[in-house]
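Journal club prep — side note

Before the paper discussion, L.F. wants everyone to see what a predicted structure for a comparable chain looks like in token form. Sequence:
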Amino acid sequence: MRTERLVILVTPEEKRALAERAKAFDVSVGELLRRSAREPGSGADEPTLAALAAELRRAVKESRAALRAALTEAESTLSQLSARRKARRVA
């Protein structure tokens, strides 16, 4: 149970940085600080990992679109080849 209060003074830049980091993890600043206290040093790479995860999601989305386009083109090519084969058989 949380029964202790901690008041700290920070610069506006530090406050902004804490708020941005907390927002990136979808937690409050207080929760961000509590996690940091429980696991010292564990949050150092979290912003980098969050950025990498976002980049990976974007890359996956682009890859899926490229694969769909390639499949469409391959299906079109196969249809054309099939039509040519049928035309040769008839001739």
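L.F.'s comment for the group: The chain has a mean pLDDT of 90. Keep this in mind when we get to the figures.
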